């Protein structure tokens, strides 16, 4: 296998440090759970965070952390991993879905990119496209671009406006996903984290909604293939209620990394296909084949 060499970003970032500190203190306060398996997961931008936190857990265990965290694996759904790969895969995906012809390369502005079959609706601020360009635009430019009207009742994105159990007066203007957070963007790619976790023998489930054009399964497949894992189980369908729910493949080289798609799901899978997502998770976490 050709070794992948990417710049290793700081795994000792504040978020992974806080996660280790919190879980360690919680286990000390709840000793009856110390032997329980721990699985962490997340969707969308968590594709940058989850592998780094999982790797921090694994490294701390190797260094003798007490209590040890019994990490059994991690999950990433529709996860941002490498922005360059994911952005460049959009044209390939759009062409394969017959959204653009051979001669045309800019014809996706009218699509609901979170789920290409859904009607085009506004996003609750900020739009994912604006978030994706945050590294190349100033905050002032981003705010000027946030002029799209709010989603209306009936749009899939209408629920993004809802905040549960937030009392009036406790915060300013509520945003479902703010671009105004103050943090250092220092992890351009989390591929190296996946590789290191694989070498340590950690199980993982990487899954994608096959109609998501924000973080596309095409790009996810590309970075997985860059790891050069040997595929033991070739592509096959997985079923729910005797119907095809998606496809999956098991590259079992260093570890048990499973890649799965969920048919008809957008960004993110639990939002669009909750029964299929739960069935996939339950089978994976219990060690059953999808």
Topology, pairings included?
Layout: H1 14-29, E1 38-43, H2 46-62, E2 71-77, H3 83-96, H4 128-132, H5 139-145, H6 191-199, E3 203-209, H7 217-226, E4 231-240, E5 243-251, E6 257-262, H8 269-272, H9 274-285
Parallel strand pairs: 1-2, 2-3, 3-6
Antiparallel strand pairs: 4-5, 5-6
Helix pairs in contact: 1-2, 2-6, 3-7
InterPro entries: AB_hydrolase_fold, Peptidase_S10
GO molecular function: acyltransferase activity, transferring groups other than amino-acyl groups; serine-type carboxypeptidase activity
Family: Belongs to the peptidase S10 family.
> What percentage of amino acids are in beta strands?
15-25%
- Rg value: 20 Å
Architecture of the domain at 14-82 and 188-285 in CATH? 3-Layer(aba) Sandwich
- End-to-end Cα distance: 27 Å
Widest sheet: strand ordering: 1-2-3-6-5-4
Secondary-structure-based class equals: alpha/beta
Give the fraction of residues assigned to helices: 25-40%
| Average pLDDT taken over every residue | 77
Order of helices and strands: HEHEHHHHEHEEEHH
CATH topology of the domain at 14-82 and 188-285: Rossmann fold
Low-confidence stretches: 1-12, 125-147
The DSSP helix count reads 9
Gross morphology:
globular
**Largest sheet descriptor:** 6 strands, mixed
CATH class categorisation of the domain at 14-82 and 188-285: Alpha Beta
Number of strands: 6
